[in-house]
Amino acid sequence: MRDFLLEEAKMMKYIESKARSVAEFYGYKEIMTPVVESYDLLATKAGEEVRLRMFAFKDLGGRMVALRPEFTPSIARVVATTLRNEPKPYRLFCLGSLYRYDEPQRGRYREFWQSDFELVGSDKPEADAEILMLTNSLMNGAGLKKCLFKVGHVGVLRGVLSEERLDDKVQSAVLQLMDKKQYEDAFGLVKDSGASERCLAVLRSLVELKGCNAFEVVGNVKKCVEGYEKAVVAAENLNRILKLVVESGCEIDTSVEAGFARGLEYYTGMIFEVYVPELDVALSGGGRYDKLVELFGGEPTPAVGVANGIDRIMLAMQEQKVIPKEAEEKRVVIIPIGDGTKAEALRISRELKNASIVVEFEVMGRKMAKALEDADRRNIGYAVIVGKKELDEGKVVLKDLKKREQTTLKIAKLAQAIKS
After folding, report:
1. CA distance 229 to 225
2. Would you say the CATH fold of 331-419 matches that of 6-319?
3. Angle at CA 342, nearest 5°, toward 336 and 345?
4. Strand 90-99 relative to strand 111-120: parallel, antiparallel, unpaired?
5. Are 384 and 396 spatial neighbours (Cβ–Cβ below 8 Å)?
6. 172, 276 in Cβ contact below 8 A?
7. Every domain of the chain and the residues it spans
8. Region of residue 279 (left: phi > 0; alpha: psi -120 to 50; beta: else)
């Protein structure tokens, strides 16, 4: 768990602002859920890897609770209860800190930050396409280059396994192993569970089916799983999603991987992760989960969503040397000369703030030269020097620290002069 200081904190807030902007333009409404939730809620369909890494404990009432390791279960709970009578679809947005007991390494920490988007109530491929396009908008907004979307479909793998009559628990265990790329262990478990030799051959072929020619790969997947009806339907669903994205004109670099699985058990359809060449951890990940809401007592409700790693996006921006494109901020330091000018200098400071100008007041008692030197070092654009002689005439000195120019002007015209 880390401190974010100065520039890093500024960059984190910048990425958060981009996430909020995407939420606004796509029509997603923010909700805020608790950091501490019922352990059973968070553990439901989380996957063994996540369950083992949750910060879980008993509260003073003897209840088993945990720090949230992700947003989706909390959102599913809200949908199943508080929002159940609201008109669908729900477009929901969350932003905050999450917790997993990982071994700290580059891009992986025990406290991490995410923006989460969930589109709840639609089982149509256009909903999946929207989540892909929304994620791409955030990556573009952050200024990242060469983002690659790794895309798969859990329904292909589960379709094959379910038609071989493997129960859900075994299927989840197989997908967990495939997520860790422990393919031989996964295939061994499939074989031990009584699956056919053809099933094993198909799974081995699916793991090898990958590439950036998305529609060619999907076509090969359909041929590979021929005879497994549910898997064929899933492959066609992925084809329709990707076709919608392409035909919309949205340019996303995509690699389809038929053997791709994610660690969370609740996924039922399209899944994806986003990478940049400089990092080996995903910046974003998400997919379709059509059965989670009803586990919490709600009606059967289809849903698709994505979680974007705020701190990982920051790391990617640092690696790619992306400088945040912020609106230029007019920053001013007010420097009173002598004790008799301080009250008036504070009044001027307040008026400039009311005019939406960022103002710092010299509170260290430094001489003017030292105060100007400090302002220059901290990249402040302007200094307002409040001297008794100028005040007697209703004026101050405005110094442009970038151009090294200064002028004496009426206090009433100060804010306008700085803004212009």
Report:
1. 8
2. no
3. 70
4. antiparallel
5. yes
6. no
7. 6-319, 331-419
8. beta
User: In the 3-class helix/strand/coil scheme, how is 404-415 assigned residue by residue?
Assistant: CEEEEEEHHHHH
331-419 adopts what CATH topology?
A: Rossmann fold (3.40.50)
Give 331's strand partners.
Answer: 358
Residue 341 CB burial class (10 angstroms; 0-12, 13-18, ≥19): buried
Are 218 and 235 spatial neighbours (Cβ–Cβ below 8 Å)?
A: yes
Alpha carbons 48 and 37: distance in angstroms, whole number: 18
**Percent of the chain topping pLDDT 90:** 86
Q: Across the chain, which distance is largest between two alpha carbons, in Å?
A: 95
pLDDT tens profile 214-256 = 999 999 999 999 999 999 999 999 999 999 999 999 999 999 9
DSSP designation for 320: T
Average pLDDT of the segment spanning 10-18: 95
CB 357 within 8 A of CB 368: no
Structure tokens at 224: 């590979």
9 has pLDDT over 60: yes
pLDDT average, residue stretch 91-111: 93
Q: How many residues does the chain have?
A: 420
CA–CA distance, 336 with 308 (Å, rounded to integer): 46
CATH classification of 6-319 is 3.30.930.10, yes or no? yes
* Pairwise CA distance, residues 91 & 83, whole Å: 12
Give the phi and the psi of residue 90 in degrees, each rounded to 5.
-95, 130
pLDDT for res 267 = 93
Query: How confident is the model at residue 399, as a pLDDT?
Result: 96
